[in-house]
Amino acid sequence: MKSALGFLVAAKRCEIQGLEQLEVTSGLVKGVCEFVHVLQKERGTSNVFLASRGQRFGEQRQTRIEASVQMEAAVRAQFDQLDTDSGKMASGMRLFSRIAHVLHVLDALPGLRQRIGAQKIGADEATRSFNELIAGLLGVVFEAADTAADPLVSRALVALFNFMQGKELAGQERAAGAAGFALGRFDTAAQQTLTHLIEGQERCFRIFSEFADPTLCQIWRNVQTLPEVAEIERMRRLACAPSPQRLEADAADRWFDCASARIDAMRQVEDCATNALLSLCERKLEETRADLHDQKHFLDSLSASTGTQGAAVAVFFDSGSAGLASGPTDGTSAVLGADGLSPQLGRSVLDLVRAQAQRLQNINEELGTARAALHERKLVDRAKGLLMSQRGLSEEEAYRLLRQTAMNQNRRIADVAEATLALADFLKRD
Amino acid sequence: MKSALGFLVAAKRCEIQGLEQLEVTSGLVKGVCEFVHVLQKERGTSNVFLASRGQRFGEQRQTRIEASVQMEAAVRAQFDQLDTDSGKMASGMRLFSRIAHVLHVLDALPGLRQRIGAQKIGADEATRSFNELIAGLLGVVFEAADTAADPLVSRALVALFNFMQGKELAGQERAAGAAGFALGRFDTAAQQTLTHLIEGQERCFRIFSEFADPTLCQIWRNVQTLPEVAEIERMRRLACAPSPQRLEADAADRWFDCASARIDAMRQVEDCATNALLSLCERKLEETRADLHDQKHFLDSLSASTGTQGAAVAVFFDSGSAGLASGPTDGTSAVLGADGLSPQLGRSVLDLVRAQAQRLQNINEELGTARAALHERKLVDRAKGLLMSQRGLSEEEAYRLLRQTAMNQNRRIADVAEATLALADFLKRD
């Protein structure tokens, strides 16, 4: 018969199993992160190549393709090493489905490259194809973050996912800006696209800063002091000005170079983040294995003193959390079990049971916070939709209303979105 | 190299693994449900036994104890059969911790019975001990509901958990009412306890009705037409009347009998619910195994036609969900992969990938709804605490305010609680 302590040990073993899976997933996330970066570079050069009708970046594009092909092979090898057969992978259903999507898109990448090389596809369409592939890869990271069962690892993954998402929006902003500066002007639609991409980045990096550890936050703050970042801010202002501004002749190139420098600096942050993630997984695994070792040791010592594990916990009945803290005067007196174990031993088991219950409660709440941040965007989108349908606002106006309210009340936009959704029928009435 | 389809198959295998675990957990829940019922009966007779100073229910109590001992053995045997070693049980960390808690409390049950038999414990303290044990067992059901990865099974478990919780509150109401009717009066504190237990039941049964299937809801509605239920409502009114009412001499016995009849009828609902749960698990497993079989068959047919699985999905690149619905005229033309597979086959794989993505999205949303209901109580508690600290309300007043607002606005109390929490700083200001 299994004892209370036996089940605590089993719970710990499950936790270790989960952390081992998380370590594998984190390694995968690191690979995906690098792959996305080279794909972003390939997208950028392909874009210029197509826009210049094959006049520019022909050679750079080949270099980028080679880097992508190499990283693709590495990521595919990581996919192949995943344990897909034993069914042990708790988050397998969701993770493997995301990977299936990515693989399906990846399989067609050579065909896409061929069409780009032969200039049989427009720059916009090629960009959209790369965007979809990158979105699929980000989906793998999202799943890893959403299914991680350890709060610290989950926080690190939420921070990383948001950073990657912000960097991807930075990449899209680079392309949108390059097109406008090359054209010499930004019409209203182009300005809106740019604004949307900038605001999206701000949202992502805010969540990143909220969940990343202090070291990473500092590295990120350092990136923001780069001269290229200030230059980008200046050019953003020119691009989004209400009346057309005089643009320098080399504006397009300068924009592209500054944006690229910023993105490369972001890559450094990502690199630190993925390495920190892996160290964190290792550390948590070591700690949890040490815990398990201690518990087993405790279990063995009990077995040795009583001859049976099951009896080890049959000690006293306790009717609530007050029982432990207060003395025997309050009526909750400890009674000896039939096996004659001392109350002290039973009390130790009770401590373990309670500590574990409290720990799970904390884990649950912390995971809830991290996952809520991950789903923040979804919440904001739903609130926007509500405002659009019930107040007749445009998407832009709806978002601005939410953001302005959040700023006025010094609250997170997700909280405002949540309150908006909760007050849905109230909104309808007035 | 694993293909997209290979990962879809792996995802399906994980899903089956999850359903198999869910089937085992559901069997456990069924056992726990029966065990809780006999413990509730033992608690009731122990209560009368102690209150009558051993004059009443001495024999019945022995019968109840025997039933409890028998069910305890059955539930312990189910615990023992759980796969605690392989680490395959995805929800193991949480489930096993709950079980450890239950086992720890269970081990002391013989000692508790001894003290009750020797009348060395008060009725209140004995009741509290049984309450804690039952709360621990309900915790096992909660965990099963909170970790179930299938929306339908999750809904069934959420319904069952709330029903069990409601039935447990009904049992506590029986005890509280019996004490008051035996005493011949209900003071304000006793009335508040009763009101709290009645409102708690209403909340639980409302959530049950929201998540249970129509058949179960009908069975539950039938229970509510029992003459004993009407009689309980009449006696509740007498007990909670602002001025003391004349109580019949046999009020205590009649209350106890009616409440017991109602609880026994509830047990019938539970029995149907647990059987339906097991059938549901079986059915889902069959369906999912059939799906897997179809996918494998599809995979085999592709392998046969191309000689390699990996190539089977390397077909065409598609740049967004619009690509499938529209024809080749929109520029998203399908291109043949290097392996020369027809676009039709690739399209089938794409269909599978997309269908799975959509399915996971739906599953996630449905699970979110079910789990939110499970955590509704926690939300209401937090909102109550906020109103108490920021508005200086009593717990009773805070709850009434939330409930009244919900009724006025025709919304769920959880939504009102959520809105209250989201508007926290707003509340502070005025």
From TrEMBL, chains A, B:
Segments forming domain ANTAR: 360-421
Family annotation (SMART domains): ANTAR
Domain NIT, residue spans: 30-284
InterPro entries cross-referenced by the UniProt entry: ANTAR, CheY-like_superfamily, Nitrate/nitrite_sensing, Nitrate/nitrite_sensing_bac, WH-like_DNA-bd_sf
Alphabetical list of Pfam families matching this protein: ANTAR, NIT
Annotated GO MF terms: RNA binding
Protein name from the UniProt record: Antitermination regulator
